Amino acid sequence: IIGAGGGARAIINGLLEAGAREIRLFNRTLARAQILAADFGPRVSAFAWEEREAGLAGAGLVVNATSQGMVGQPPLDLSLAELPRSAVVADIVYAPLETPLLAAACEHGATPVDGLGMLLHQARPAFRDWTGVLPEVTPALRAAIVATL
After folding, report:
1. CB neighbours of 144 closer than 8 A, spacing ≥ 6?
2. 3-class SS at 89?
3. For every one of its 149 residues, what pLDDT tens digit does the chain have, with 9 covering 90 and above?
4. Distance of alpha carbon 19 from alpha carbon 42, whole angstroms
5. Contact residues for 121 (Cβ-Cβ < 8 A; gap 6+)
6. Which of 32, 45, 56, 72 has the fewest CB atoms found within 10 Å of its own CB?
7. Alpha helix (H) residue ranges in 1-84
């Protein structure tokens, strides 16, 4: 996981609930990553920003949980050279849908996952709370949102 904010916290929680054995957390501020890792116990370890590329070795999943790569922000500075080609690379950024990180993942042979799915699925409970209706995330809904980006 790249980043140590609220998005990273939610992703770590979900991965641990799904049975992840090990989560490596990298953040530009090591102390912030250490505090977040400590909240989750021994399966989450914090590492210095300078170790982020070496930390990709053997990873099955990489998640950018920062705003880097979003429209108006600098791209995430991350070489995928150490990442296995079988890995999944996810970016919680959804504008643009294909961030520089996801383009690099495609070039590397990894499987890219954009941030629109996360946006749609986190919007479901809010929509339900406002309207009493829990919408399904369908290809048509996704297409309608993509058309507005």
Report:
1. none
2. strand
3. 999 999 999 999 999 999 999 999 999 999 999 999 999 999 999 999 999 999 999 999 999 999 999 999 999 999 999 999 999 999 999 999 999 999 999 999 999 999 999 999 989 999 999 999 999 999 999 999 999 88
4. 13
5. 137
6. 72
7. 6-17, 30-40
